[in-house]
Each structure stands twice: as C-alpha cells, then as structure tokens.
Amino acid sequence: MTAQSVKWFWYASPQTFYPVAGVIARWCGAAAAVLCAAGLYIGLFVAPTDAQQGEAYRIIFIHVPAAWMSMFIYVVMAFWAAIGLAFNTRLSHMMASALAPTGALFTFIALWTGSFWGKPTWGTWWVWDARLTSELILLFLYFGFMALQAAIDDRRRAERAGALLAIVGVVNVPIIYYSVQWWNTLHQGASVSLTRAPSMAATMLTGMLVMALAFWMYSIAVTLLRVRCLILENR
Amino acid sequence: MLEAARCIVVRDLLVAWRRRSDVATALLFFVIVTSLFPLGIGAEPDLLRSIAPGVIWVAALLSCMLSLGRLFAADHADGTLEQLLLSSEPLGVIAAAKALAHWLVSGLPLVLIAPLIALQYDLPAPLYPVLALSLLLGTPVLSLIGAIGAALTLGLRGGGVLLSLLVLPLYVPVLIMGAGSVDMAAAGLAPDGQLLLLAALLIFAAAFAPWATAAALRISVE
Amino acid sequence: MNLEASHLGCERGGRTLFSDLSVSLRGGELLRVAGPNGSGKTSLLRILCGLLSPTTGAVRWEGTEIRRLREEYSKQLVYIGHAAAVKDDLTAAENLRIACTLAGLRVSPRQIQQALDSFELADLPVKRLSQGQRRRAVLARLVVSDSLPLWLLDEPYAALDAAAGRLAEELIDGHVARGGAVVFTTHQDTRVRASQVIDLDA
After folding, report:
1. CB-based contact (8 Å) between B222 and chain C?
2. Which subunits count as partners of chain A given 3+ CB pairs below 8 Å?
3. Which of A99, A179, B67, C90 is the most buried (most CB within 10 A)?
4. What pLDDT was estimated at residue B153?
5. Count of B–C CB contacts within 8 Å?
6. Is-contact B150 B106, C-beta < 8 A?
7. What is the ipTM of this complex?
8. pLDDT means per 10 residues in chain B (222 residues)?
9. What SS3 state is found at B164?
10. Which pairing describes strands C150-154 and C15-26: parallel, antiparallel, or unpaired?
11. Helix H or strand E encompassing C197
C-alpha cells in the first residue's frame, strides 16, 4: 500500500474523522452565516427591481440556489454511496445517509419558495411546469432513500440497499428531468446556466451564487454534524 | 445460460398457472381502476377520450406495481431464492429471466386487455395500435425496473407501500413517454419520437436493470 | 480441491457469533460444525457458500477468494439449507429437474426418477407431501450431485426417519470416499465419522 492510500483510509476511520468533522463543521457554519447575510443583503437591497415581476421575484435568491443544492447534494450522496459499495467503508455510507435529510430539506425549500414565487407571477400556488415537477420527483427519491434505510433493521443491509437505490436514482435523474422537460415547458427558462451567458443583471447572478455558496457551507456543516451523531450511534 | 433462463421462465409460468387466481386478481385490479375514473370525473365523452391514454397508463403502472411484491417474495419464503443465488449461471441472467416471467404474467395481459378499456373510453380507432405498441414497449421496462425495487424491499415490513415509493419516481419517464405517444397521435402528430424513446428506455433497462437487481438480491439475502 | 477460510468473523444483530475462525478442507474430508442453537452454525455455512459476507476474513477456493469467483465457485457446490428450497406447487420431479438445470448438471429423466425412487417419493405436488417427505425430496438432490466436489448441508438429518437418515449417511459417506468434501451441521448423533469438528460453543 502506498503512503497516499494509507493516508486516505486513515481518514476513513470513524474515530479519526470525528474530531476533524467537528472542526470543519464549525468553520463551515461560520462561513455559511456570513455568506447568507451577504447574499440576502445583495438579494434584498442591492439587486434592482425586475421590470416584469416587481419585488416578488426576489424569492429567486432562495429558490434557485435551493434547487441547485437539492440536485447537487443528490449527486454527492450517490458518489459517497458508490464509494461505500466499492471500498466497503462505513464512513462513506454514513456520509450518504447524513446528506439525505439536508438534500430533502433543500428540495422542499425549492418547492415551497417556487410556490410562493408562482402565486404573484402566475396566479396559482402550484404549476405543473418542468422544473417544479422534477423537484417534486426528486423529493420522492430522497424520501424513498430515507424510508428504505429506516425500514431495514440490519445496519449493513440498510446502508448497502440505500446506496444501491441512490446510484439507480442518480442514473435516472437526467432521464426523469428530460422527460419532464419534454412534458411541459411553462417554467421560466433557465436564465442562469453553467454553459450559457446569464440573461439577467449581474447583481442578480452574484446574489444567487453567494446564496448558493452559503447553502453549500450550511450543508457541509450540518452533514458533518449528522455524521458525528451517526459515528456515535454506531460505535 | 439460455437453458437456465428458459428453465426459470417456464418454472415461474408453471407456478403462476397453478396459482391462477392470484394472477387474475391483479388483472382485475387494472379493469376496476379504469372503471373508477369515469365514476369520479363524470362520463362526458370528450373528457373521457382525452384522459383515456393517461388513465390506462396509470392503471397499468399501478397494476404492475401491485404484482411486483410477488416477484421474489415467494422464492424468498420457500428458500428457492438462495438456490437461485447459488446457481451456476450469472445472477443477472437469472434476474432478467424473473423479470421476463413477471412481464409475461402481469404485463402482456394488460397489453391485450387495454383495447377493451379503450373501447369503454371511446378512444378513436386509429389510436389503438399506438396505445398497444406503447404498452408493449413500456410494460417490460416497468417489470425490469420494478424488479430492482422488489429485490431491495425483500422481506421488509413496509413491503408494498415502500416498494411503491421507491419505484414510482423511476416509472415517471415511462409513463410520460407512453401516455404522451398516444396523446401525440390523438393530436394528429406522429408518435414516432416517443415510441423510439420508449424503445431506448427498454434497451437501457434490459441492459442495466438485471445487474442492479442481482446486486440488490445479494444485499437483501445476506 | 481446497477450501480455506482464514480469520473468519461474523456479527449478526450486534452480537459477535464467532471471530478468528479458520477452516481448511480438502477432498475426502468430512467437517462437522457443532454448537447449540444460535451459535452461528448456519451463518458459518452460508459464509462458506458465499451467501453471507463475513465481517472479517475471507474464504478461498483453490487459492482464489470466492467473492471474485462468483459462479465459478457456485458451480462446484451443493448447498442445502434449513428451508426446503422447493416450489410447493410443483412436483418433486419438477423441482429436482429445475435444481439440476440451475446447477448446470446434465441429468436424464431416468436419473431423476431413480433419485426420487431411492427416497421413495410419489409424484405429487410438494405441498401435498409431509414434512419428512419434503425433506427427502430436497435430499434427493444429493443422489445426482456426485460430480460437485463440495457439499454444504445444514441439518441434513432433521425431520428424517431412520431409513431415510441411513440413506443420507450413505450418500455423505460415499461422496467423501470418492474424494468429495462435505461440511454439515447437526444436533443429532450420527454414525458418520467426521475427520474434523468445529465447535462453535467454545
């Protein structure tokens, strides 16, 4: 075994990781608070009023970053699940299990804020457009993962079954997304994307990116705290 | 390899034949559910004609899902599942054979009964082939993906309901493409795109789902 | 043929059933696993056939880990567990034929009939057979499995009457004499001399 691989697997030991997780969680939590304050400031005060939607559009600063995080966390969850199955490391499985509730939370926030955005913009509390519908299905995927792990008493089987489900899910997410896209295109077309130039004011983009970063730091902090709890439970 | 697969399909068909009433109940469910919608929504002909593809597809989905519980549970209970895991053939082949047998018993009959339901909803005659073809392509996908869920939830308390929660989100693309193809035909457009996508989903599922099912079986039997 | 298991450990439901257990089995050997109920006999057998992953340690067949061999290893063994492993709705003959096909054995209908005759089984659906007859239907597999080197049997003598029990002993003895290996667990006293005994009570 090379020195490099020894170092990785050393951190994979729950006992070693426990204090490290605590330190990282504290720093990320602090960063999250700062970034969130900055993001909300930009979103609420600095960004200009939208020509068509007025002030109500400002919920986008929570809705869009939450939607990004919900999908990002699912991918990360599937990543840790795959690592856990491949290398049989318990800590990887714990990371996947710890990520799920946060992912579900952000999905729920995205749906909730999407609903609040929809009311003044389209007049209804819910619209069956592509993005919201995909988020709804993503929420079911998260719930399925958590329900499956909760239903199995044997820890090892629970972790591995959940991991397999997460991997099957992540493969299906693009398929689900594009089929729902085809099914309906009512939602405001993605004006922020990694490949296309944004069609909204630069400050709006900055605000959303700052909030996304804040959510990311929050996720890391909360997930690591949850992993610490799992480590203690499974000692 | 084919010998073992054929053996399993024949075995499952034989067992299903000797337990005909179980199989018939699931098909009856399909018919009953489709009868409920007019009762709940109203029997206005234009309305029924427009919702027919969706209703038939949702009912097919639910009916397929109901019968998934039977896929591995009986084998698990009488110990034959362990013997399948210890067979000399790759477990993926065995899982594919089980899914095929499930489709022959629970999916194919739906394809055959659907025209009768379509008749009840006064679906225009030109749409029948599209409906049948979409079900023919889509129901095997339901069996293949459902097998993964059935393997993961083997022997669990939550059983059927948990299986539904796991599997229904994964069924959404099949439902959208399946019902969508008939809707396209109803609007006078060519349903080729959706049908080809269904075929692609079928190929994708046939290639990968058996291996996921095999992995799930190994995890669940431990 | 060579089955080696080193430093096997097994934890189920939070309890450690056994740890640091080593097994070494060669052709012509008979291994008996003894111990009270719940001591891990069935778990050990399932670890040896690959159904269960041990918490620590590994099982090797001819030097390679069975995890990597998968079907290559399964082809070499017969596992008869607690459960009957027969389909209730099918006859004993149909069940035996299926078991042979899945195991990759080429068996003629005459051989199947012979196997069932030696255990005196009627051609009825298994659900109409008594507990003892069901057990005999399962053991009939052993008659046609002489080409498979490794037999793993969990309580083979349970629910058998004297005559069937003697027949089972003969089959096991015969297999070992031909150079095969048998691992079995049992509560009962048996005349079969085991060349190795693992006691999980210690």
Report:
1. yes
2. B
3. A99
4. 95
5. 75
6. no
7. 0.91
8. 90 89 87 92 90 94 91 90 92 95 94 93 92 96 96 88 94 93 87 92 96 95 88
9. helix
10. unpaired
11. strand C196-199
Contact call for B87 and C71, based on CB within 8 A: yes
Half-sphere exposure of B161 (CA within 13 A, CB side): 5
Residue C39 lies in a domain: yes
| Torsion sign over Cα C48, C54, C60, C65 | positive
SS3 C57: strand
Count the neighbouring beta carbons within 10 Å of the beta carbon of residue B38: 16
Angle formed by the axes of helices B2-18 and C92-103, to 10°? 150
Classify the C-alpha dihedral C179-C185-C190-C194 as positive or negative: positive
DSSP structural state of residue A128: -
pLDDT tens track for A12-68: 788 888 888 999 999 999 999 999 988 888 888 877 776 666 677 778 889 889 999
Give how far Cα A28 sits from Cα of A23, A123, A220, Å. 9, 39, 7
Whether B18 sits inside 8 A of C94 (CB atoms) is no
Contact list, B222 vs chain A (CB under 8 Å): 154, 156-157
Contact A161 B201 (CB under 8 A): no
Look at residue C26 and give its three-state secondary structure.
strand
Partners of C33 in the β-ladder: C185, C198
Contact criterion met (CB < 8 Å) for B4 and C83: no
Q: Are C184 and C156 in contact (CB under 8 A)?
A: yes
Q: Smallest CA–CA separation between B145 and chain C, in Å?
A: 24
Q: Where are the alpha helices (DSSP H) in chain C?
A: 41-49, 66-69, 71-74, 92-103, 109-118, 131-144, 162-177
Question: In the beta sheet, which residues pair with residue C34?
Answer: C199
**Residue partners of A160: CB distance under 8 A and separation at least 6:** A84, A85, A93, B219
Nearest neighbour of B86 by CB, restricted to C49, C88, C89: C49
User: Per the structure block, which two tokens stand in for A125?
Assistant: 């509390």
Examine residue C54 and state whether it is found in any structural domain, yes or no. Answer: yes
Strand order in the sheet with C77-80: C77-80, C150-154, C181-185, C30-34, C196-199
Rounded alpha-carbon distances, angstroms, from residue C187 to A108, C45, C160, C162: 57, 15, 13, 15
> Is the separation of the CB atoms in C46 and B53 below 8 Å?
no
Between CA C172 and CA A44 the distance in angstroms is 81
- Across the interface, whether the CB atoms of A168 and B169 are under 8 A apart is answered no
Structural domain range at position C170:
2-90+148-199
Closest chain C CA to residue B79: C85
How many folded domains does chain C comprise?
1
**Closest chain C residue by Cα to residue B18:** C89
Spatial separation of the C-alpha atoms in residues C170 and B67, rounded to whole Å? 44
Chain B, nearest residue to C77 by Cα: B86
Angle, helices B127-152 vs B91-102, to 10°: value is 130
Q: Copy the structure tokens of residue C121.
A: 């089984």
What's the CATH code of the domain at C25? 3.40.50.300
How close A74 comes to chain B (CA, Å)? Answer: 14
Q: Give the C-alpha separation, B138 to B179, whole Å.
A: 10
> Does B46 reach chain C within 8 Å, measured CB to CB?
no
In a domain, C35, yes or no: yes
* Pairwise CB contact (< 8 Å): C74 & B86: yes
